[in-house]
Amino acid sequence: MKSNIDFPLITIQILNWNRATETVRAIESAINQSYPNFEVVVVDNGSTDGSVELISGRFPNLKIVSLSKNYGCPGGRNRGISECSGEYIFFCDNDGVLHKDAVKFAYEEISGRADCFVVTGTVREFSDEREIDVKYEIIPSETYKIHTFQGGICLIRKKVFSTIELFPDDYIYGGEEQYLSFRIMDKGYEIRKSENVILWHKKSSYARNVKNETLNSWRNKLANVYQLYPIEYFVQFLIYFVVVYPVYALKEGFFLDFLRSIPKMYSNMIKYKRIPVTRKTFKTINHIRTMLGM
């Protein structure tokens, strides 16, 4: 039987902002993982709801990285990476609950493939905690290549962040996984999805500002396309953006807000440096998307 030292250390990083109770539940699912050698690091994004006090009281030996303000999702994760001691980092949403074997299955997949740098999992939405069964025995299924990953349930080789790139720090939320996926695949590495790596995700009880979320995602999408797409595909997307996106905004009732946001989207876009991926990489990504029906 292998001992813990035969398994590399994996850090489970949980990012929190003002979700104290949900984060406690996520931590409990993390500390009950069947993988034998891991640590849990909580990164708190400047919470004001007493999260740090509650978490440190419930888990006095847990490492908590307390940030001075909310740096957003990618910014918070980036600032926690240097505090992670593991060879791999498993990023877990703070409003999620991991199956007991999630980390184990993710490691088994990534460790068996030298060219695989990210393993992402599957998310199951829940409203009632009785829908969660973290101990049921999973019948292993096949994994497959995918063109991007879900930031709230993924295992990443830590060296990605020193040899390739961090998450785009100023995106706040949305698009950061796509950006990093392009960069990883442009270096010749794979991203894979495993249906065996499971996270139950709490359906949000908060009233969401769909307009602001959509406009922010479009802002980041435009920034990604500008930075990553080869020139001819960038031009194609711009034409699509000008023709299709206003129609969607009109249907959803925020056409004028969209028009007012365009100058800021443009000025934000051009502040980045264009370092597009190769055409070969771009075609590979599109091929995977087509094969998956996306």
UniProtKB/TrEMBL annotation:
<keyword id="KW-0808">Transferase</keyword>
<keyword id="KW-0472">Membrane</keyword>
<feature type="domain" description="Glycosyltransferase 2-like">
    <location>
        <begin position="14"/>
        <end position="162"/>
    </location>
</feature>
<dbReference type="InterPro" id="IPR029044">
    <property type="entry name" value="Nucleotide-diphossugar_trans"/>
</dbReference>
<dbReference type="InterPro" id="IPR001173">
    <property type="entry name" value="Glyco_trans_2-like"/>
</dbReference>
<keyword id="KW-1133">Transmembrane helix</keyword>
<keyword id="KW-0328">Glycosyltransferase</keyword>
<comment type="similarity">
    <text>Belongs to the glycosyltransferase 2 family.</text>
</comment>
<feature type="transmembrane region" description="Helical">
    <location>
        <begin position="233"/>
        <end position="250"/>
    </location>
</feature>
<keyword id="KW-0812">Transmembrane</keyword>
<dbReference type="GO" id="GO:0016757">
    <property type="term" value="F:glycosyltransferase activity"/>
</dbReference>
<dbReference type="Pfam" id="PF00535">
    <property type="entry name" value="Glycos_transf_2"/>
</dbReference>
<protein>
    <submittedName>
        <fullName>Glycosyltransferase</fullName>
    </submittedName>
</protein>
